[in-house]
Design brief:
Shape of chain A: elongated
Chains: A alpha+beta, B alpha/beta, C alpha+beta
CATH superfamily of the largest domain in chain A: CPE0013-like
CATH class of the largest domain in chain A: Alpha Beta
Shape of chain C: globular
InterPro entries (chain B): FAD/NAD-bd_sf, FAD/NAD-binding_dom, Metab_Enz_Cyan_OpOx_G3PDH
Structural class of chain A: alpha+beta
Keywords (chain B): Oxidoreductase
Oligomer: heterotrimer
Helix content of chain A: 10-25%
CATH superfamily of the largest domain in chain C: D-Amino Acid Oxidase, subunit A, domain 2
CATH architecture of the largest domain in chain A: Roll
Structural class of chain C: alpha+beta
Pfam families (chain B): Pyr_redox_2
CATH architecture of the largest domain in chain C: 2-Layer Sandwich
Number of strands of chain C: 23
Protein name (chain B): NAD(P)/FAD-dependent oxidoreductase
Organism (chain B): Diplocloster agilis
Number of helices of chain C: 12
Chain lengths: 128, 424, 478
Amino acid sequence: MTVREDRAEKGKRELVCIGCPLGCMITVTCKDGQILTVSGNTCKKGDQYARNEVTNPERMVTTTVRLADRPHETVSVKSERSIPKEKIFDFVKALKMVEVKAPVHISDVILSDVAGTGVAAVATVNRL
Amino acid sequence: MLSYDIVIVGGGPAGLAAAASAREQGIESVLILERDHTLGGILNQCIHNGFGLHTFKEELTGPEYAARFIDRVNELGIEYKLNTMVMDISSEKCITAMNREEGLFQIRAKAVILAMGCRERPRGALNIPGYRPAGIFSAGTAQRLVNMEGYLPGREVVILGSGDIGLIMARRMTLEGAKVKLVAELMPYSGGLKRNIVQCLDDFGIPLKLSHTVIDIDGKERVKGVTVAQVDEHRKPIPGTEEYISCDTLLLSVGLIPENELSRGMGVDMEPVTSGPVVNESLETNVEGVFACGNVLHVHDLVDYVSEEAAAAGKNAARYIREGAKRAEQAGCVELAAEGGVRYTVPKYIHTDRMEEKLTVRFRVGDVYKGCYICTYFDDTCVKRQKRPVMAPGEMEEIKLQKQKLEEYPDLKKITIRIEKGGE
Amino acid sequence: MYDVVIIGAGVTGCAIARELSRYQVKACVLEKCEDVCCGTSKANSAIAHAGFDALPGTKKALFNIRGSEMMEAVSKELDFPFVKNGSLVVCRKEKDLPKLQELYDRGIQNGVKDMRIIGREEVHEMEPNLADGVLAALYAPTAGIVCPFGMTIAYAENAAVNGIEFRFDTEVNAVRKEEEGYVIHTTRGEFRTRAIVNAAGVYADAIHNMVSGEKLHITPRRGDYCLLDHTAGEHVARTVFPLPGEYGKGVLVAPTVHGNLILGPTAVDVENKEETCVRQEELDYLLDKVGHSVKNIPIRQVITSFAGLRAHEDSDDFVLGEAKDARNFFDAAGIESPGLTSAPAIGVWMAEQIQESLQLPVNPEFIPNRKGILNPAELPMEKRNELIRQKPEYGTIICRCEMISEGEIMDAIHRPVGARSLDGVKRRTRAGMGRCQSGFCSPRTMEILERELGLPMEELTKSGGESKIIVGINKDRW
């Protein structure tokens, strides 16, 4: 049992939704690992976020990789979709040795299945 | 001399959106002047995601958001000059610019859109005591070094100020291998978005100390540590609360200042609260045909609002080009007053006949308000009360004014926006 | 074997080096920092004093007057910024009026020209932002403002062009007397020389005491300053002093030659000769005091605060000339205010002393003139465009606050005694000195330094030593 589940079982969690800049305060009540109520959200996304956050929190990851022959330029990348929160550092570390050659275009896959997440790192910038 | 209908100073999010909008309104002769080597402005170094939810209904990173607008500008065939610094703009809208290919040159513009963005407040403005060693960076400088060049400016970091760039950089530096020991915020509330506190600090166990500041910087050559202390309600350090934190880097995220040197030079009136130009409903300054949008006008929290505002400025500038000479002389106009917790409004004046059917008025509040109302008064009459669960200085607020509604009050002199508590 | 080794590359050491280069001499300047102008010379009021402060008969009085008289011509010869803007010592109390008269009388004795005591109406007309309570002032039109970096660098460059060597990052550990002269032990090896000039600022007592039995004692007297943005630069036109107090000339308000406004200094005696940290209580005191002589100072326009150390010798005067018990060991010690003003005169006088002692022949190839870094902003449009056609880097602005081009930064790096750090570039070109305090331009200036010096980014410093800017690359510790 992870710490998070442990907390979820204690009954009540207060969350700040990160779905959009509004930052709604959401309260989730749980019993025996089951979510009973979600309140405080202003939209459906908030409800979904809160449910995920107490069971399987996920995050988008953004970082950089090196660009061959251009010491002053990086290629910014992101996880194609959100990954489990506890995998954030593994995701970043797996990109340590990655160096790409120009041209690079937005959405180009830089590394697939990063750190066993099944999620690719894709370029978020054009380097021509 | 070169001559254009509309010259846009700055090729960041505001300049790009303004240019696209002006062109879509049918103005062919549009030129963007950009000082950097690419379009996109500061978005290029904001590689985190969270941009574009309003504009594109999806979350993009900064460079991706910029690329959408750059693509649009290219599709529309809008001219731009890169690596070009605008040195001066005269009140007659003659622009002096410089780049390495053309040298110093002048451009005559019928309309100018100011979209220069903002800069960070430096340490000097804070007058922090202590030494002046290497290792003190504004958060944006660190952001450029880490995100665009791949260099780490520090291993052990203390961040002063909880503005969004500071929060974002806490996460970025953590991910790249630095240890962020603390974020200290002078005010009793954060200057950044709540979600950034969650995903940039809480996720990584980085402490945020509100009502704290840095009172000393140690280290003659490179930062060795900082002393942090709690502050009282007058923001003065409380003796006995000092704590020394060893670190090699101090990042400052203590606010942004619109970059209006060019605007001042051409005689544009400034609003002291925003440090941006005073504008009317068309986002036009007191200098006829000179418009302002984006962070040069007032510092925004979200780029989506910058794009929206800039599109309006582009449209209004286009209209000025089409109708400028024919515009009715203004007898009078309605003034907007910011009171009761509202720090300022953009715009500041409204010519009712020139406004669109709906006009967005943007502002910021001076404190954290919970369960309060944004109240709109037409002279002494309260015409609207809108409840907001939470308002904070770090987040921009807006209301919409209906032209139709204003026309119902022909003698209207002043619109007041104020925050009022519930139940009143 | 050198004829002369000058210890210290501040304004005094550099002025002496330049004046010495008028003679045929093998000479070298040793500096513990990475550049010239790194100590007291870089953090002071930047004032060329008229000369009424020092007591008649003191060396301070003598060299102040001489230096003040030389400044305009030297600034033209060596092309550094100097403006004769005049100064006012303001008086706010009836009972203090005699003190103003006393200063005037002292000035007359010292030989200050054209001074006047002026009344309330005239002084407020001259300076509309003076505090309302100002009753009268001593007006000295011969006072000026100078760029201390520009002046020190100008002297150093001209000295270097005329054959004087400069060794940086070279700290003197010990000096040993030998038959022929001296051996100087440094962090970068030994230097043998016939004569030594001690221009080591706050460390001049330590250097002196290595060879002389007649001990000197220098107290570092720290002064905190605030610098305001160009928007505040015209708040006063003249340098405004209060009546002098126990610790010197008091807190002044002055424009700078680059259009900023400077406030300061405070005065606190400290023990540590490196204690250039700004203190909150000093800043508070400073901002309170300036309001007594000038009103409505736009404090929000402060772009930086900094502190400098004055080298205050116990005798309260400059210590100049050959040490009594150490032949060919020349002191230029205790050089505190009016040291900057006096530097041209000290340089000339000291070079003469050394020449007499060592019997140096005149240098027939001496080049008296130096041209500063080209400032394209001062050129008319056509000339500027011609320049950009020849060297396109002059068309690329790097520092957007001060509008400094890549060409100027490259020039600063490649000149004699060129810049090797961000601060070195800043002091030579002003890139990074503006309102954003190098936030935008420092990464770009670093790229230029990397390219022009062939140093990796990780080796570049803010100001030499351990002041590295970059500590690694992304993910290097993962």
